[in-house]
């Protein structure tokens, strides 16, 4: 209804303004035409008087001219040195118009407003004195009530057409908008199969297309969330099953003696796995909240890489992986040191998980005048080319590679890394590594 009312209001206002402008233009044109006609009549009368050499009251022919003019609503006033004869109520008008100037041989052509009425005055000198033709603007060839009535009828007809067109256009515009609003409400209620027909004006079609794209995006997002939750549930169930089984064995006395320590170690290992997964999920949830805090300070990438190397060199040695540190010159970047170390550790954890014995794991830093970076590279199996565009989406690589190579807990590690890097104002990119595996580069502008 609001769209229809708006269209109707616009149409009526447009027609009304156009009508008022037309009335004004017609009024001005009518006065101009009437003044021109009156001027021509005055010139004709002056020419006839010059030929006869007499006055307006001097002959029958001139009297007929006066009668004809009177029949057209024109008053003829004789001007002499003694004043205006037969002026009557027009005396103030003639005085305001200054018609006495014609006695000096100067014609007068003017408009005078007196008593709220506009008078048109044309005065000319004559062989004997002079004369003035006076009429109101409403009595001209385009004046009177007929023109005003015709204009009024035309204006009313235009408003009626505008009302009809406004209602029709408003309905045509409102119908697709109502469909779009209904679809939006259904999307809010949980429906994802709702689509809006794309049609109508370009703007309305754009809105419908945007709603359809939103529905598709919501459906894809919820599908990814379902897969992610299923994957996380599976990852949670595996260590929970191990913990529960060994705990029941200990409780029932099935495991005793020297086997007790092994059972305890399994429980501890699986509990740590659970702790890491739950911690990653909680960090990811906090990361998506608006109140997630960072404490950025100047961080030396080379120093951070050196500190991380002390830990990862030992872990790589235990796993039989060759660790390499390539720390460049000191480069200060604004970052949260704890979160940046979390990013480096997460990427190194992933690299160590897939790197075979003897393969390298590299932590390197460097940059140029425009950017500073820290890289984690490995000599593992790497990624397929079509994996790089989706490498940071939650659980995607986890689902693709589960059962084919070692994977993390739930597939949230890379999504968490991407979120942390983005929150620190940096960028992260995945690419093939010269060592044969994958390379992850965190860049600070």
From TrEMBL:
Gene3D superfamilies per UniProt: 1.10.287.130, 6.10.340.10, Histidine kinase-like ATPase, C-terminal domain (3.30.565.10)
Cofactor: Mg(2+); Mn(2+)
PROSITE patterns xrefs: HAMP, HIS_KIN
Principal place of residence: membrane
Cellular compartment(s): Cell membrane
Membrane spanning stretches: 151-169
Enzyme class: transferase
Topological type in the membrane: Multi-pass membrane protein
GO molecular function terms listed in the Swiss-Prot or TrEMBL record: kinase activity
Residue stretches making up the HAMP domain: 171-223
UniProt KW keywords: ATP-binding, Cell membrane, Hydrolase, Kinase, Magnesium, Manganese, Membrane, Nucleotide-binding, Phosphoprotein, Protein phosphatase, Stress response, Transferase, Transmembrane, Transmembrane helix, Two-component regulatory system, Virulence
Pfam name, any one: HATPase_c
Known catalytic reactions: ATP + protein L-histidine = ADP + protein N-phospho-L-histidine
Residue ranges occupied by any Histidine kinase domain in the UniProt entry: 231-445
EC number(s) given by UniProt: 2.7.13.3
Source species, domain of life: Bacteria
InterPro entries reported in the protein's UniProt record: 2C_sensor_his_kinase (IPR050980), HAMP_dom (IPR003660), HATPase_C_sf (IPR036890), HATPase_dom (IPR003594), His_kinase_dom (IPR005467), HisK_dim/P_dom (IPR003661), HisK_dim/P_sf (IPR036097), Sig_transdc_His_kin-like_C (IPR004358)
Protein name as it appears in the record: Signal transduction histidine-protein kinase/phosphatase MprB
Organism: Pseudonocardia charpentierae
């Amino acid at each position: 209804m609001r769209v229809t009312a708006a269209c109707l209001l616009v149409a009526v206002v447009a027609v009304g303004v156009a009508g008022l402008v037309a009335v004004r233009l017609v009024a001005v044109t009518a006065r101009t035409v009437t003044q021109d006609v009156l001027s021509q009549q005055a010139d004709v009368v002056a020419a006839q008087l010059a030929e006869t050499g007499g006055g307006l009251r001097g002959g029958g022919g001139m009297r007929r001219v006066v009668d004809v003019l009177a029949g057209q609503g024109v008053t003829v006033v004789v001007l002499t040195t003694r004043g205006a004869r037969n002026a009557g109520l027009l005396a103030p008008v003639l005085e305001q118009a200054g018609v006495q100037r014609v006695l000096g041989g100067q014609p007068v052509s003017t408009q005078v407003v007196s008593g709220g009425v506009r008078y048109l005055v044309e005065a000319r000198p004559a062989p004997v004195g002079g004369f003035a033709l006076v009429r109101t603007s409403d009595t001209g060839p385009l004046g009177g009530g007929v023109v005003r009535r015709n204009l009024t009828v035309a204006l009313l007809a235009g408003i009626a057409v505008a009302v009809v067109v406004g209602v029709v256009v408003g309905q045509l515009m409102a119908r697709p908008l109502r469909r779009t609003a209904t679809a939006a409400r259904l999307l809010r209620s949980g429906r994802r199969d709702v689509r809006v027909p794309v049609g109508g004006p370009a703007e309305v079609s754009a809105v419908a297309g945007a709603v359809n794209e939103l529905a598709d995006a919501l459906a894809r997002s919820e599908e990814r969330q379902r897969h992610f939750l299923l994957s996380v549930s599976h990852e949670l169930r595996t260590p929970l099953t191990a913990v529960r089984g060994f705990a029941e064995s200990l409780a029932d006395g099935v495991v005793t003696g020297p086997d007790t320590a092994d059972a305890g170690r399994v429980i501890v290992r699986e509990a740590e796995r659970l702790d890491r997964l739950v911690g990653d999920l909680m960090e990811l949830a906090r990361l998506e909240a608006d109140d997630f805090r960072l404490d950025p300070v100047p961080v030396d990438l080379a120093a951070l890489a050196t500190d991380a190397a002390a830990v990862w060199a030992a872990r790589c040695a235990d796993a039989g992986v060759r660790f390499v540190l390539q720390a460049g010159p000191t480069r200060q970047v604004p970052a949260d040191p704890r979160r940046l170390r979390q990013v480096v550790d997460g990427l190194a954890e992933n690299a160590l998980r897939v790197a075979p014995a003897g393969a390298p794991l590299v932590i390197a830093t460097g940059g140029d005048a425009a950017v500073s970076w820290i890289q984690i590279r490995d000599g593992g199996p790497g990624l397929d080319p079509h994996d790089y565009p989706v490498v940071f989406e939650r659980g995607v690589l986890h689902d693709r590679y589960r059962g084919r190579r070692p994977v993390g807990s739930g597939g949230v590690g890379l999504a968490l890394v991407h979120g942390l890097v983005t929150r620190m104002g940096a960028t992260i990119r995945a690419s093939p590594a010269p060592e044969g595996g994958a390379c992850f580069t965190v860049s600070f502008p």
